[in-house]
Amino acid sequence: MAQIEKVFIETYYITDANDATDTTGGGIDAGTKTYRIYVDLKPGSKIRKIYGDTYHRLMFSSTEVFFNNKVDGLTFAKDFNRNRFKENTVALDTWLTIGQVSQQSTKTYFGVPKPADRDGSFIGGLNSDGGSAAIAQGLLVNSDTEMGIPLTTADGIDTMLSEPNNWAHYGFQDFATQNDSTIFGSLVPGMSFVSNNAGLINSAGIGGVIRDTNQVLIAQLTTRGELSFEINLEIEQLDGVFTKIVKYVAKSDTLLEDEALSPFLSYPFLCGCLDANYLEYKDIYACNFQDSCKTLVVLGCMDTSACNFDPKANYNVPSLCCYPGLCNDRDLNVVCPALASENFNLSVFPNPSADLINFSFWLKNEQEISYSVQDLFGNEIISLTTAGKDQGNVIRTVDIGTLDNGLYLLKVYINDLVFRKAFLKSE
Q1: Which tens digits make up the pLDDT trace of 41-83?
Q2: Which domain holds residue 334?
Q3: Where in 171-277 does DSSP place strands (E)?
Q4: Boundary of a domain, candidates 313, 340, 367
Q5: Do residue 232 and residue 275 come from a single domain?
């Protein structure tokens, strides 16, 4: 799976009746879930870009509308001031990011999975203004076990010493007004964002707060519906002592030279056989499905015209196939000892020739033979089956006088074997 070890979705928060009292942020129903999407990278790798392009769309979708805070919501989490998270339901806003979730003065804050958060919380409870209903205990205090650690215990936010810069984006906000009418803005309620021309970029690249796990937050999505997404990432990864850029895409319908498929970037994940030793294996699977691996791969030559055809093989390897005069630099006596014992050596002479060619070979036992001449496109031009059976030194003559100048292939058929020899017709 290359640099992307997995993608996981954390249930960050589930709203309750108190949260539903707030109208300042536009209102949110109880039972609405906030999800965070993390990309788990190999140590040393960084995300430089989230994007959709001509061949690979960027897509986030839900069966219900996404929630966006109408007063203080933003498209990109990097633009939040930490103090905004104290206000009503701002902390549940839907947004995109590459790692960064807010900033304040000299500190820059990044997303981390709640179980990895060791510095407490500045979200919810006493850190909340209580919303429009001025709830005394504050908002975002739900402790439903389905969402794991409560936000009042761990807010999934930590600091990093290095502050990322070099940000750029396109395809989300109106260029002139900076208004966002997508699912990441509050202007128009939406259930889906699909674009072949959108991106959020940090040209320096961003890794995880904890370098060993290297988990990078890329989106927060709040909705009552079921999620689906297709994400494409530009990743800076180590290549020896140097770094290189690789684009990992969600779909492999079109793969360019610098692109690689990652099945983790498309959700819901497809599950199947992940063991490449089985025929059922496919690189589009992100998770293993029980008992999906059924048929062990047996490598071999499956060309019935080859002298080493393997009837037990179920995965053809053409480079393993051997024919007289063509055995990929291997010893024919070892690969096809039965054929070698016949002392079979197909010769064509003269070569090149203007009108007649002769071909000869040795047969230890009586065999019925036939032959054909084909052009380079595989079209059969001459075909003949000899009467009776031949044995010993066999010589045949073929009239090629009517053929156009060029390269041709002589094929000699003996039982289930086919022997080939190229020759040149030249005046």
Answers
A1: 999 999 999 999 999 999 999 999 999 999 999 999 999 999 9
A2: 302-340
A3: 192-195, 198-206, 215-223, 227-230, 232-239, 242-249, 259-261, 266-267, 271-272
A4: 340
A5: no
